[in-house]
Each structure stands twice: as structure tokens, then as C-alpha cells.
Design brief:
36% helix; globular; 70 residues; three-stranded parallel β-sheet
Length: 70
């Protein structure tokens, strides 16, 4: 058995209705100190969503942020 993961208290959830695309939303909140991003989109197609997820994971690494996908 492994150690339990401790999640940050604050989670940002991306929004299709925001004026900025998902990757830009993530970049903005990472720069403000958010350490947990939940990617949620009902409008993007599978390929677009997969590309956004890969990019958000990439830009989150230097911040040691957690990325989850809903």
C-alpha cells in the first residue's frame, strides 16, 4: 500500500464558456499559484481535448501542479 495523495485545497475547473481557451485558462491560474486544475469540456472534440490536456500537463509541470480530467 502506498501513501495517500494530499490534494491542494483550491481546485480550478476549466470552462467552455470562459472567454479564454482551456490552455490559456490553465496558464493564467498557474501563474497565480493554483496547484490543481480539473479540465472539463463538453464542447471540444476528442482530438482537440486530448491536445489541450497534453499541453496543460506540459505547462503544469514547472509548477508541480496536479491535472485531472473530467
Amino acid at each position: 500500500s502506498g501513501a495517500a495523495m494530499i490534494l491542494p485545497r483550491l481546485q480550478f475547473i476549466t470552462s467552455d464558456s470562459a472567454p479564454a481557451p482551456l490552455v490559456e485558462q490553465a496558464h493564467q491560474v498557474l501563474s497565480l499559484g493554483v496547484k490543481w486544475i480539473q479540465i472539463r469540456s463538453k464542447e471540444l472534440g476528442d482530438d482537440e481535448l486530448a491536445a489541450a490536456v497534453r499541453e496543460i500537463i506540459r505547462i503544469s509541470r514547472p509548477y508541480s501542479a496536479i491535472v485531472t480530467v473530467n
